[in-house]
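Page 47, continued from p. 46.
Same chain as before, 304 aa.
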Amino acid sequence: MADHPGSIDDTLILLENEGYVAGRPLATVLFLALRLGRPLFLEGEAGVGKTEIAKVLSRGLGRHLIRLQCYEGLDVASAVYEWNYAGQMMAIRLAEAGGTVDRDVLESDLFSERYLVKRPLLQALEPQSAGAPVLLIDELDRTDEAFEAFLLEVLSDFQVTIPELGTIKAEYPPIVIITSNRTREIHDALKRRCLYHWVDYPDAERELAILRSRVPEVPERLSREIVGFVQAIRKEDLFKAPGVAETLDWASALVELDAVALDPALVSDTLGVLLKYQDDIQRMQGSRAKEMLDRIQDALRTSA
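Result:
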Protein backbone atom coordinates (compact mmCIF):
# COMPACT_ATOMS: atom_id res chain seq x y z
CA MET A 1 0.00 0.00 0.00
CA ALA A 2 1.40 3.38 -1.03
CA ASP A 3 0.80 6.57 0.90
CA HIS A 4 -0.90 9.47 -0.80
CA PRO A 5 1.49 11.55 -2.93
CA GLY A 6 3.09 14.35 -0.94
CA SER A 7 3.00 16.99 -3.67
CA ILE A 8 1.61 17.82 -7.10
CA ASP A 9 4.87 16.66 -8.67
CA ASP A 10 4.60 13.35 -6.82
CA THR A 11 1.04 13.00 -8.16
CA LEU A 12 2.30 13.54 -11.70
CA ILE A 13 4.96 10.89 -11.13
CA LEU A 14 2.39 8.44 -9.73
CA LEU A 15 0.23 8.89 -12.82
CA GLU A 16 3.20 8.67 -15.17
CA ASN A 17 4.48 5.49 -13.50
CA GLU A 18 1.14 3.87 -14.28
CA GLY A 19 1.21 5.00 -17.92
CA TYR A 20 -1.18 7.95 -17.58
CA VAL A 21 0.09 11.16 -19.21
CA ALA A 22 -1.62 14.02 -17.36
CA GLY A 23 -1.37 17.78 -17.36
CA ARG A 24 -0.54 19.72 -14.21
CA PRO A 25 -4.13 21.01 -13.66
CA LEU A 26 -5.43 17.44 -13.37
CA ALA A 27 -2.56 16.42 -11.09
CA THR A 28 -3.28 19.45 -8.90
CA VAL A 29 -6.98 18.74 -8.39
CA LEU A 30 -6.25 15.04 -7.84
CA PHE A 31 -3.63 15.87 -5.22
CA LEU A 32 -6.08 18.19 -3.45
CA ALA A 33 -8.87 15.60 -3.54
CA LEU A 34 -6.58 13.06 -1.87
CA ARG A 35 -5.23 15.56 0.66
CA LEU A 36 -8.64 17.01 1.59
CA GLY A 37 -10.53 13.71 1.46
CA ARG A 38 -13.05 15.10 -1.03
CA PRO A 39 -14.71 13.25 -3.93
CA LEU A 40 -13.37 14.21 -7.36
CA PHE A 41 -15.98 14.89 -10.02
CA LEU A 42 -14.62 14.44 -13.56
CA GLU A 43 -16.61 15.63 -16.55
CA GLY A 44 -15.74 15.38 -20.23
CA GLU A 45 -16.50 13.70 -23.51
CA ALA A 46 -16.55 9.90 -23.67
CA GLY A 47 -13.16 8.32 -24.24
CA VAL A 48 -10.92 11.07 -22.85
CA GLY A 49 -9.60 9.00 -19.94
CA LYS A 50 -11.85 9.82 -16.98
CA THR A 51 -12.46 6.23 -15.90
CA GLU A 52 -8.80 5.40 -16.39
CA ILE A 53 -7.84 7.93 -13.70
CA ALA A 54 -9.58 5.82 -11.04
CA LYS A 55 -7.91 2.65 -12.31
CA VAL A 56 -4.49 4.28 -12.34
CA LEU A 57 -5.03 5.68 -8.84
CA SER A 58 -6.03 2.25 -7.56
CA ARG A 59 -2.90 0.62 -8.99
CA GLY A 60 -0.56 3.44 -7.98
CA LEU A 61 -1.78 3.54 -4.37
CA GLY A 62 -2.22 -0.22 -4.06
CA ARG A 63 -5.90 0.15 -3.17
CA HIS A 64 -8.85 -2.02 -4.10
CA LEU A 65 -10.96 -0.57 -6.93
CA ILE A 66 -14.72 -0.77 -6.45
CA ARG A 67 -16.71 0.27 -9.51
CA LEU A 68 -20.35 1.29 -9.64
CA GLN A 69 -21.35 1.42 -13.30
CA CYS A 70 -24.35 3.73 -13.54
CA TYR A 71 -27.33 3.23 -15.85
CA GLU A 72 -30.91 4.39 -16.19
CA GLY A 73 -33.05 2.87 -13.45
CA LEU A 74 -30.17 2.19 -11.04
CA ASP A 75 -31.62 1.81 -7.54
CA VAL A 76 -30.53 1.16 -3.97
CA ALA A 77 -30.83 -2.62 -4.37
CA SER A 78 -28.28 -2.59 -7.20
CA ALA A 79 -26.01 0.11 -5.80
CA VAL A 80 -26.01 -0.46 -2.02
CA TYR A 81 -27.50 -3.73 -0.81
CA GLU A 82 -30.31 -6.25 -1.07
CA TRP A 83 -31.36 -9.34 0.81
CA ASN A 84 -30.79 -12.86 -0.46
CA TYR A 85 -34.49 -13.65 -0.66
CA ALA A 86 -33.98 -17.16 -2.05
CA GLY A 87 -31.65 -18.00 0.84
CA GLN A 88 -34.10 -16.52 3.35
CA MET A 89 -37.00 -18.56 1.95
CA MET A 90 -34.93 -21.73 2.12
CA ALA A 91 -34.07 -21.00 5.76
CA ILE A 92 -37.77 -20.48 6.58
CA ARG A 93 -38.74 -23.77 4.96
CA LEU A 94 -35.99 -25.67 6.74
CA ALA A 95 -37.06 -24.16 10.08
CA GLU A 96 -40.69 -25.09 9.43
CA ALA A 97 -39.70 -28.59 8.41
CA GLY A 98 -37.81 -28.96 11.69
CA GLY A 99 -41.02 -28.39 13.57
CA THR A 100 -39.71 -25.85 16.09
CA VAL A 101 -39.82 -22.26 14.96
CA ASP A 102 -38.81 -19.47 17.31
CA ARG A 103 -39.99 -16.49 15.28
CA ASP A 104 -37.76 -13.94 17.02
CA VAL A 105 -34.65 -16.07 16.58
CA LEU A 106 -35.57 -16.87 12.99
CA GLU A 107 -36.20 -13.22 12.11
CA SER A 108 -32.91 -12.18 13.70
CA ASP A 109 -31.07 -14.81 11.66
CA LEU A 110 -32.85 -13.97 8.40
CA PHE A 111 -31.89 -10.30 8.59
CA SER A 112 -28.26 -10.80 9.54
CA GLU A 113 -25.15 -10.23 7.43
CA ARG A 114 -25.32 -13.90 6.46
CA TYR A 115 -28.11 -13.04 3.98
CA LEU A 116 -26.98 -9.53 3.09
CA VAL A 117 -25.85 -9.06 -0.51
CA LYS A 118 -23.41 -6.16 -0.52
CA ARG A 119 -23.32 -3.94 -3.59
CA PRO A 120 -20.54 -1.45 -4.54
CA LEU A 121 -21.49 1.48 -2.28
CA LEU A 122 -21.75 -0.72 0.80
CA GLN A 123 -18.54 -2.57 -0.10
CA ALA A 124 -16.72 0.77 -0.31
CA LEU A 125 -17.65 1.58 3.31
CA GLU A 126 -16.14 -1.63 4.69
CA PRO A 127 -12.59 -1.80 6.10
CA GLN A 128 -9.98 -2.97 3.59
CA SER A 129 -6.62 -4.49 4.51
CA ALA A 130 -4.87 -2.32 1.90
CA GLY A 131 -6.50 0.88 3.13
CA ALA A 132 -9.54 2.84 2.00
CA PRO A 133 -10.57 1.65 -1.47
CA VAL A 134 -10.99 3.72 -4.62
CA LEU A 135 -14.73 4.02 -5.34
CA LEU A 136 -15.44 4.74 -9.00
CA ILE A 137 -18.99 5.98 -9.66
CA ASP A 138 -18.89 5.81 -13.44
CA GLU A 139 -21.16 7.79 -15.79
CA LEU A 140 -23.40 9.27 -13.08
CA ASP A 141 -25.26 11.25 -15.73
CA ARG A 142 -26.94 8.01 -16.87
CA THR A 143 -28.90 7.72 -13.60
CA ASP A 144 -32.00 9.67 -12.61
CA GLU A 145 -32.27 12.51 -10.10
CA ALA A 146 -33.72 10.25 -7.39
CA PHE A 147 -30.54 8.18 -7.25
CA GLU A 148 -28.43 11.31 -7.41
CA ALA A 149 -30.28 12.64 -4.35
CA PHE A 150 -29.64 9.39 -2.47
CA LEU A 151 -25.96 9.61 -3.36
CA LEU A 152 -25.81 13.03 -1.66
CA GLU A 153 -26.33 11.39 1.74
CA VAL A 154 -23.71 8.75 1.10
CA LEU A 155 -21.10 11.30 0.04
CA SER A 156 -21.92 13.66 2.91
CA ASP A 157 -21.41 11.22 5.78
CA PHE A 158 -20.00 8.09 4.08
CA GLN A 159 -22.64 6.00 5.73
CA VAL A 160 -25.78 4.08 4.81
CA THR A 161 -28.66 2.93 6.97
CA ILE A 162 -30.04 -0.58 6.67
CA PRO A 163 -33.28 -0.69 8.70
CA GLU A 164 -32.76 -4.26 9.87
CA LEU A 165 -29.10 -3.79 10.84
CA GLY A 166 -28.68 -0.09 11.62
CA THR A 167 -26.23 2.48 10.26
CA ILE A 168 -22.98 1.37 8.66
CA LYS A 169 -20.34 4.10 8.57
CA ALA A 170 -16.91 3.98 6.96
CA GLU A 171 -14.05 4.09 9.44
CA TYR A 172 -11.89 5.56 6.68
CA PRO A 173 -13.82 7.17 3.80
CA PRO A 174 -13.09 5.75 0.35
CA ILE A 175 -11.30 7.72 -2.34
CA VAL A 176 -14.23 8.69 -4.57
CA ILE A 177 -13.97 9.38 -8.30
CA ILE A 178 -17.22 10.32 -10.07
CA THR A 179 -17.38 10.59 -13.86
CA SER A 180 -19.95 12.11 -16.19
CA ASN A 181 -20.15 12.35 -19.97
CA ARG A 182 -22.50 15.31 -19.52
CA THR A 183 -25.49 13.78 -21.27
CA ARG A 184 -27.43 15.70 -18.61
CA GLU A 185 -26.49 18.23 -15.98
CA ILE A 186 -25.66 16.94 -12.50
CA HIS A 187 -27.30 18.88 -9.66
CA ASP A 188 -25.26 21.62 -8.02
CA ALA A 189 -25.84 20.11 -4.57
CA LEU A 190 -23.78 17.06 -5.51
CA LYS A 191 -21.10 19.06 -7.31
CA ARG A 192 -20.61 21.23 -4.22
CA ARG A 193 -19.51 18.16 -2.28
CA CYS A 194 -16.79 17.44 -4.81
CA LEU A 195 -13.73 18.97 -6.36
CA TYR A 196 -14.30 19.43 -10.09
CA HIS A 197 -12.20 18.96 -13.21
CA TRP A 198 -13.09 19.02 -16.89
CA VAL A 199 -11.09 16.36 -18.74
CA ASP A 200 -10.62 17.74 -22.25
CA TYR A 201 -9.17 16.23 -25.39
CA PRO A 202 -5.36 16.42 -25.16
CA ASP A 203 -3.33 18.69 -27.41
CA ALA A 204 -1.14 17.07 -30.07
CA GLU A 205 1.99 16.94 -27.93
CA ARG A 206 0.28 15.21 -25.02
CA GLU A 207 -1.68 12.85 -27.25
CA LEU A 208 1.57 11.82 -28.94
CA ALA A 209 3.08 11.17 -25.50
CA ILE A 210 0.03 9.07 -24.55
CA LEU A 211 0.32 7.08 -27.76
CA ARG A 212 4.02 6.43 -27.23
CA SER A 213 3.35 5.31 -23.67
CA ARG A 214 0.37 3.04 -24.34
CA VAL A 215 1.22 1.65 -27.79
CA PRO A 216 5.02 1.91 -27.96
CA GLU A 217 5.31 -0.47 -30.92
CA VAL A 218 3.85 2.10 -33.33
CA PRO A 219 6.55 3.51 -35.67
CA GLU A 220 7.42 7.15 -34.99
CA ARG A 221 6.26 8.46 -38.36
CA LEU A 222 2.97 6.61 -38.10
CA SER A 223 2.45 7.89 -34.55
CA ARG A 224 2.77 11.49 -35.70
CA GLU A 225 0.44 10.91 -38.64
CA ILE A 226 -2.16 9.24 -36.41
CA VAL A 227 -2.12 12.08 -33.90
CA GLY A 228 -2.18 14.72 -36.64
CA PHE A 229 -5.15 13.07 -38.33
CA VAL A 230 -7.11 12.61 -35.09
CA GLN A 231 -6.43 16.20 -34.02
CA ALA A 232 -7.67 17.42 -37.41
CA ILE A 233 -10.74 15.20 -37.46
CA ARG A 234 -11.88 16.52 -34.08
CA LYS A 235 -12.28 19.96 -35.67
CA GLU A 236 -14.79 18.58 -38.16
CA ASP A 237 -18.54 18.76 -37.68
CA LEU A 238 -19.01 15.20 -36.47
CA PHE A 239 -21.75 13.59 -34.43
CA LYS A 240 -19.10 12.11 -32.11
CA ALA A 241 -15.45 13.11 -32.27
CA PRO A 242 -12.97 10.32 -31.46
CA GLY A 243 -11.57 10.23 -27.94
CA VAL A 244 -8.13 9.15 -26.79
CA ALA A 245 -9.44 5.60 -26.42
CA GLU A 246 -10.26 5.55 -30.14
CA THR A 247 -6.83 6.97 -30.99
CA LEU A 248 -5.18 4.08 -29.13
CA ASP A 249 -7.53 1.53 -30.69
CA TRP A 250 -6.77 2.87 -34.17
CA ALA A 251 -3.03 2.81 -33.52
CA SER A 252 -3.22 -0.81 -32.33
CA ALA A 253 -5.29 -1.77 -35.38
CA LEU A 254 -2.77 -0.15 -37.74
CA VAL A 255 0.06 -2.05 -36.04
CA GLU A 256 -1.84 -5.30 -36.63
CA LEU A 257 -2.02 -4.36 -40.31
CA ASP A 258 1.76 -3.78 -40.40
CA ALA A 259 1.27 -0.15 -41.41
CA VAL A 260 4.29 2.17 -41.31
CA ALA A 261 2.51 5.25 -42.73
CA LEU A 262 -1.03 6.35 -43.51
CA ASP A 263 -2.47 6.46 -46.99
CA PRO A 264 -6.02 7.37 -48.14
CA ALA A 265 -7.08 3.77 -48.77
CA LEU A 266 -5.83 2.61 -45.36
CA VAL A 267 -7.60 5.49 -43.62
CA SER A 268 -10.90 4.78 -45.40
CA ASP A 269 -10.69 1.05 -44.65
CA THR A 270 -10.08 1.57 -40.93
CA LEU A 271 -12.31 4.57 -40.14
CA GLY A 272 -14.71 2.22 -38.33
CA VAL A 273 -12.12 1.83 -35.59
CA LEU A 274 -11.86 5.59 -35.12
CA LEU A 275 -15.46 6.72 -35.75
CA LYS A 276 -18.60 5.02 -34.43
CA TYR A 277 -21.37 6.59 -36.53
CA GLN A 278 -21.98 5.82 -40.20
CA ASP A 279 -22.77 9.45 -41.06
CA ASP A 280 -19.37 10.50 -39.65
CA ILE A 281 -17.58 7.74 -41.57
CA GLN A 282 -19.25 8.69 -44.85
CA ARG A 283 -18.36 12.34 -44.33
CA MET A 284 -14.68 11.53 -43.81
CA GLN A 285 -14.20 8.91 -46.49
CA GLY A 286 -12.76 9.55 -49.93
CA SER A 287 -11.54 13.00 -50.96
CA ARG A 288 -12.03 14.59 -47.54
CA ALA A 289 -9.76 12.05 -45.82
CA LYS A 290 -7.17 12.37 -48.61
CA GLU A 291 -7.18 16.17 -48.37
CA MET A 292 -6.64 16.08 -44.60
CA LEU A 293 -3.95 13.41 -44.85
CA ASP A 294 -2.05 15.31 -47.56
CA ARG A 295 -2.06 18.43 -45.39
CA ILE A 296 -0.80 16.53 -42.35
CA GLN A 297 1.98 14.77 -44.25
CA ASP A 298 3.08 18.04 -45.88
CA ALA A 299 3.27 19.65 -42.42
CA LEU A 300 5.35 16.75 -41.08
CA ARG A 301 7.76 16.92 -44.03
CA THR A 302 8.17 20.67 -43.51
CA SER A 303 8.91 20.27 -39.81
CA ALA A 304 11.35 17.39 -40.33
